[in-house]
Design brief:
Jelly Rolls; 7-stranded antiparallel beta sheet
Length: 241
């Protein structure tokens, strides 16, 4: 097994007043040559946007963009004609493909919205842009890993992505354990702890810590307190797509 540990306090920090963001990987003005990506996982930003504020209309191309609200509501509008609100429990995927413009604003005028912004390199370039959004009530069935995003050809009733990548989420009660098995041995697993305290393959993770592992068949996770876990499985290189 090969692995890296990313502690919460090692992330890049950005404070723009209306936006506070923690970057797991190099992004914007934050650059760390040792943290440019994990395989084809390019961006994992932990964002907080103040009430009435947001990201104005801006372009993306050839990137799979996933938004996961953790608190509050985020209003999305794009050049495909999509206008939607995503809230806690929702997951949004936008395949930028040949190019798309979009904006994201806090729907509340006075309460902050907190969400994860995740970018994954696509499997195929220059596809037609697409949008999808679904709700997942993973907390109602604890101690089970729930897949929320999977490859386009996957038979699972989840959001589909233009990459051989999977996103899964779980609420693990104190003292309970589970195991995530890799779908493809060429993939790596990046486990990001949203809340709580767990042991992942023997390594302690606290709130917003992460461990990336590869050359493994699975990751064993044990909760030392009730915890919310995000698991991202991605190819480790374009050659393994």
């Amino acid at each position: 097994m090969k692995y890296i540990i990313h502690k919460s306090d090692s992330r890049g920090q950005a404070d723009h007043g209306w936006l506070k963001s923690a970057h797991s990987f190099s992004f914007a003005n934050y650059f760390d040559p040792e943290k440019s990506n994990f395989g084809l996982l390019r961006v994992l930003n932990d964002d907080m946007v103040e009430g009435g504020q947001g990201f104005g209309r801006h372009p993306h191309q050839n990137m799979e963009i996933i938004s996961i609200p953790l608190k509050g509501e985020l209003e999305h509008e794009d050049s495909m004609g999509t206008k939607r609100v995503i809230k806690t429990g929702d997951v949004q995927v936008m395949s930028a493909g040949t190019g798309v413009h979009h904006s994201e604003y806090n729907k509340s005028a006075d309460k902050p919205v907190e969400f994860l912004q995740i970018w994954i390199f696509p499997k195929y370039k220059d596809i037609a842009p697409r949008y999808d959004q679904k709700s997942f009530d993973y907390a109602s069935i604890p101690n089970t890993i729930h897949t929320i995003v999977a490859p386009m050809e996957s038979p699972e009733e989840v959001i589909k992505i233009n990459q051989d990548a999977y996103l899964s989420i779980a609420k693990l009660e104190k003292g309970k354990s589970t195991s995530y098995k890799v779908h493809n041995p060429a993939n790596g697993i990046y486990t990001f702890l949203l809340e709580g305290n767990v042991s992942a393959n023997g390594q302690t993770l606290e709130r917003r810590d992460a461990i990336g592992v590869w050359d493994v068949e699975s990751v064993a996770i044990e909760a030392r307190e009730t915890s919310d876990i995000l698991v991202i499985e991605v190819p480790m290189s374009f050659e393994n797509n």
